[in-house]
Write a structure and sequence with these properties.
Elements lengths: L7 E5 L5 H9 L4 E3 L11 H6 L1 H8 L8 E5 L7 H10 L4 E6 L2 H15 L7 H4 L10 H7 L7 H8 L8 E5 H6 L1 H11 L19 E2 L2 H9 L1 H10 L2 H15 E2 L8 H22 L11
Helix pairs in contact: 8-14
């Protein structure tokens, strides 16, 4: 078991600019992180069963133990077993959570699920009314729970069962977009890093788009047999470049149609009380999220 435990975890939420935050934080000279989009160890039951030692070797080819170890997985905030696993791994870890207007987040997650080949529904309206209990795959079910993943107050309450509030930093996506320099400075300070460092914000990290062939993306992401065969045949560095190249080749630019106004109005009403509860937890005015456009 390696002694280098995870110091910092970006734990969610899905489709809220966490990739950009992860990449910018990873540019800090005193931070060591993974190249992959998600560190799946705490969420993926099979990977967790294989043990942290194997995951550490898989995700971190650089072993500079004097640096703070940063990971990102947007499913950790959603799955209670993942939070419990992280707490047992390092109860002193610093956690960062990025929240986004839950209506916009839900629609963006639907577009992502379509790109990944996870979502079979033709319309967003059909997708938000589907029976999640019929979906057996844990990762897919978590991805397509468009309504549940926007219940931020419930997720924060669950989070505080395992970690004290002073170890959790909650951001809003609009804060990161409006003033990334100040947000990153506050994140570095929160994590015990030199906050004098400023990342290069000219680098853009955009994982949006649409899959040319959804089955290709689904096989790469969710077929354990394929991943294990590739792992056996190729060294980690070459394997990651190959998989990343295939994903990029299979992704095409795509601008979805705007969400229907009646659907947006329905979701605003659905989240209204939940957003009020969240605002009380965060001591922040979130009334803009409840405005009908």
């Amino acid at each position: 078991m390696p002694q280098h435990k995870i110091d910092i975890a970006i734990i969610g939420v899905q489709k809220a600019a966490t990739t950009s935050l992860h990449r910018y934080m990873g540019l800090h000279p005193d931070v060591l992180t993974h190249e992959r989009l998600e560190f799946a160890f705490f969420v993926d039951d099979d990977e967790f069963a294989d043990g942290y030692d194997k995951a550490y070797s898989k995700y971190f080819t650089n072993r500079q133990i004097e640096k703070k170890l940063l990971i990102k997985n947007v499913g950790i905030i959603y799955w209670e077993d993942a939070l419990k696993r992280l707490q047992e791994h390092n109860p002193d870890a610093r956690l960062i959570l990025v929240l986004r207007n839950p209506v916009d987040r839900a629609y963006s997650a639907f577009q992502y699920a379509k790109m990944m080949g996870f979502e079979k529904a033709n319309t967003f309206e059909e997708a938000i009314n589907q029976d999640l209990h019929a979906i057996k795959d844990k990762i897919i079910r978590g991805t397509v729970d468009y309504l549940g993943r926007g219940d931020y107050a419930d997720q924060l309450t669950m989070l505080f069962k395992y970690f004290p509030e002073n170890q959790v930093k909650v951001l809003l996506q609009e804060d990161l977009q409006r003033d990334p320099t100040s947000v990153l400075k506050s994140c570095f300070a929160f994590c015990g890093l030199d906050d004098g460092f400023t990342p290069d914000f000219t680098k853009k990290f955009n994982e949006s788009g649409r899959s040319r062939i959804p089955l290709v993306m689904q096989l790469l992401k969710r077929t354990r047999v394929v991943r294990k065969k590739i792992s056996f045949l190729l060294p980690t560095s070459i394997r990651q470049k190959l998989l990343g190249g295939i994903e990029r080749m299979n992704r095409q630019d795509y601008k979805p149609e705007p969400i229907k106004l009646e659907t947006r109005d329905f979701l605003i009403r659905y989240y209204q009380e939940k957003n009020i509860q969240l605002g009380q937890l965060l001591k922040r005015d979130l009334s803009e999220w409840n405005q009908v456009k």
